[in-house]
Write a structure and sequence with these properties.
Layout lengths: L1 H17 L12 H20 L1 H5 L5 H8 L4 H12 L2 H75 L1
Helix pairs in contact: 2-4, 2-6
Length: 163
């Protein structure tokens, strides 16, 4: 009798553990779209963290904009998020993809900043070289001007002496 009760209890536990903790929602957002939404929300959160007044000055809710962009509502997003979060490994893969995209964009932005800094440095060097050439040219021109003035005075003095 103890074996039968143990078998029934074990079978009940095994069957109950097999059921999903959260049932699949009727309007489940596809994984790829969910990753895109999570990526956009992560970017908005980063912007809000770095410069809180930038988003607050728009007088709109950024999450509403994202939901409208992907044609989902907040309830659909929340239920889909809960559903995906019950599968730890799958949810981790989704977040890893979001992190990979963010790092890719970060590297791209850093490359653009480096190129702009290099361009700015080159233009500063060119301006500096032009300024140095101009300054040296004016000094040479100034000396020549003095020499020319003395040469003009000298013949004029000779002419006065002849008269």
């Amino acid at each position: 009798m103890k074996r039968i009760i143990f078998f029934i209890v074990s079978l009940t536990l095994f069957i109950s553990c097999k059921d999903d903790a959260v049932k699949k929602p009727k309007r489940l957002i596809e994984k790829e779209v969910m990753v895109d939404i999570m990526y956009d929300i992560s970017l908005l959160d980063a912007i809000k963290y770095q410069n809180p007044t930038s988003i607050d000055s728009l007088k709109i809710n950024p999450r509403d904009f994202i939901f409208k962009k992907y044609k989902v509502d907040s309830l659909q997003f929340a239920t889909s998020n809960v559903y995906y979060s019950t599968d730890y490994e799958g949810y981790k893969v989704m977040f890893d993809e979001v992190a990979k995209r963010i790092n890719k964009e970060k590297k791209s932005a850093e490359d653009i900043v480096k190129a702009e800094q290099k361009k700015l440095k080159n233009t500063k060097n060119i301006k500096l070289e032009k300024t140095q050439r101009y300054n040296s040219d004016t000094l040479v021109r100034g000396r020549k001007g003095l020499l020319d003035k003395e040469m003009v005075k000298e013949p004029a003095m000779k002419m006065q002496a002849v008269e």
